[in-house]
Amino acid sequence: MAETTEARIDKWLWAARIFKTRSIAADAIKNGRVTIQGVNVKPSRMVKAGEVVSVRKPPVTFSFKILKTIEQRVGAKLLPEIYENVTTPDQYELLEMNRISGFVNRQRGTGRPTKKDRRALDEFVGPALEGYGDFDFDFDDDDDD
User: Fold this and answer.
1) How far is Cα 64 from Cα 17, in angstroms, rounded to an integer?
2) Which of 64, 73, 102, 134 has the lowest CB atom count within 10 Å?
3) pTM for the full model?
């Protein structure tokens, strides 16, 4: 693991296994999904140890504090030495809620919900609608007031 004092942000994101390829990392940076301390950056931006990098992977914004600057990809076991995950717990709650309710607002082109999706929806919505199952409203259309 060759440690330097500075590294390009696109190389660091790839080397730290945040993105699968360097080109995907560069595209994310160009599209404004990566910020350093709240400022959009370019792929060639040099990063140093101690900086906080925020990566937006909808619906969550992950935050990482750089511990070591590297430009060569390392094994997954060495990642705790490279960065510290400082993502707030509310972002993980948002991720969990999105995972649970992901079938509610389905993406375009995913087709009809399966039986499993329907059952999951009923299980998710069911407790909220308990007690409302028996509707006995009287709708009189011919009210003569």
Assistant:
1) 12
2) 134
3) 0.66
Q: Is the pLDDT of residue 8 over 90?
A: yes
Nearest alpha carbon to residue 52 among 20, 41, 4: 41
Pick from 79, 57, 55: nearest CA to 67:
79
C-alpha–C-alpha distance, residues 35 and 56, integer Å:
9
Structure tokens at 95: 């991720």
* Nearest Cα to Cα of residue 46 among 16, 20, 8: 8
Q: Give the model's confidence band at 16: pLDDT under 50 very low, under 70 low, under 90 confident, else very high.
A: very high
Q: Which residue blocks in the chain are alpha helix, DSSP H? A: 9-15, 22-30, 79-82, 89-100, 115-125
Torsion of CA 3, 72, 78, 49, to 10 degrees: 40
Dihedral angle sign, alpha carbons of residues 30, 34, 36, 37: positive
**Residue 20: other Cβ atoms inside 10 A:** 9
The model's confidence at residue 82, banded by pLDDT at 50, 70 and 90, is very high
pLDDT above 90: residue 14: yes
16's tokens = 């730290």
Distance CA 109, CA 85 (A): 34
